């Protein structure tokens, strides 16, 4: 059977006798449908017991563990019945779909947004004066205000199947499911529009996508290299000893993570003023972090640890000079935000002719060959994005946002979404959280209650959770899916359609399992400490804004402009001097919370790659890649097994991250 394959950017015609090569086959959809309930339950149970969320890092470790298990089973099946086993294209499609299905139950979706839904009604009262401050402005359509149902949820020993418990949640959950469906479904259109530029023209390396691609190959080259097994063994040994140490303190542990050993805390060596201003600085050695550091470009790993230390030096300098009287100064987050905007802005500016041609195709003109090899026409892709955007704005207006505020909110959200996609495509960082830089926080901090007013600030706060860190969003996964479809020749169109269909299904199960476990165990009785804090975070922040009665903040805006200009300046230097070793993206990304955990692994990876490139020759590249895969799998696989053991036995075990 002859088919035209349009996923790689080149129209190729090849004989395809194996229907499995389309990727999203019926059995892939069946497997996805079976795995979604199990996967969302597993993460909900991790939330309950306080084990760190897999979606905090860019490489969802729950999906990686599941993928490795399926790959091993598929390898056995391929020997018994080759025609029955999953093809590589099917394996990769399954990877993307399960990853997308993990997003709704992630830290910024259920773990934070779910708390915000109930936090005002349950924690509001005389001590905090929330009712007087903003009680009349809280949208009821997307929050739960039935005190009886919430009290039973927090006390436990009840069932979600009781009508008095599920009915108050029905309307808000339906509306939130619609929001995530349109919000994330719209990203599929953007993925098509940016695919050709980032995949074919700029040849982004998609470092994280290389991991499932390598594992899914019929013969995994790294598995036949000694370097892989040595790295795997070392990482697994760390997990094994640290896991056994949690049960038997006499077994020696190997400190690699924050909080494991006080000697890793470098602050104990730098005490007193002004050194205390630098915040947390730990020397950690996460094996998977070092492995991911070996996969990303060398200039990126250098920039991450270098700028992390420079930010700490800036904090010390500001404290030493006594410039801390202005609240928030030197506005590191805002400087970082300007850098983030420049990451996307510079790439779009450099690709002006390309996007003019794309826009011409959207309007119905231009060169038809421009999108002839895409998963869908640019007009269709833009229509998908536009429908998602307009639907989200309407939902914002329905909770009493002003039209301009709702439009500005979702414009910034989609800009930040594209920034995350760019970071993953080019840099493949272990974590790409954009902590407290989403539209709720930025609009609240910059405009304040004098400009926005109580209603808009309150409505913005309802949407705080899913914009708090922007860690678990499907857009970069969809983009990686299109990259992998071009690499292996499966249908990107089918993949995008299936990804959009997965979102509401996974969102439903995410809410269902969290509510079921909540009513059974009690959020306040047998639940981790996150929920009481997370349920109040958005509302405490709102109270702070309203009590401050601030107006337009020129200091923060100036910091954003400075960050934008600083990034553009560094990028211009790189354009003029190709040998320049510092990547400007490190300036923006190194302010994130989890860079405290990863700066040292990046430093180790950079030193290793520098030595290998200088003294190792060409063969060192393949060896380092094998070491990277070994460290990642050797850390994630045993670490996931400890988590599964804990889920079964209800015994606290060693957590490999963070």
Q: Could you explain how this protein is built, in words?
A:
51% of the residues are buried. The longest helix is centred in the first third of the chain and has 39 residues. α14 packs across α15 and α16 packs across α19. The chain has a domain of 301 residues. The N and C termini lie far apart (49 Å). The chain is built from 23 helices and 2 strands. By secondary structure, it is mainly α. The chain has a two-stranded antiparallel sheet. β1 and β2 form a beta hairpin.
Short description:
The protein is built from 23 helices and 2 strands. It is mainly alpha-helical. Mean pLDDT is 88; it is low at 1-16.
Number of strands: 2
Strand content: under 5%
* Strand order within the widest beta sheet: 1-2
| Major β-sheet profile | 2 strands, antiparallel
Topology:
Layout: E1 2-5, E2 12-15, H1 26-49, H2 61-80, H3 88-102, H4 107-123, H5 130-134, H6 147-155, H7 163-201, H8 210-216, H9 226-247, H10 287-295, H11 298-321, H12 332-350, H13 352-362, H14 378-398, H15 403-426, H16 439-462, H17 475-488, H18 492-521, H19 530-548, H20 554-576, H21 585-589, H22 595-615, H23 619-649
Antiparallel strand pairs: 1-2
Helix pairs in contact: 1-3, 1-18, 2-3, 2-23, 3-17, 3-18, 4-19, 6-7, 6-18, 7-14, 7-15, 7-17, 7-18, 9-23, 10-22, 10-23, 11-22, 12-15, 12-20, 13-14, 14-15, 15-16, 15-17, 16-19, 17-18
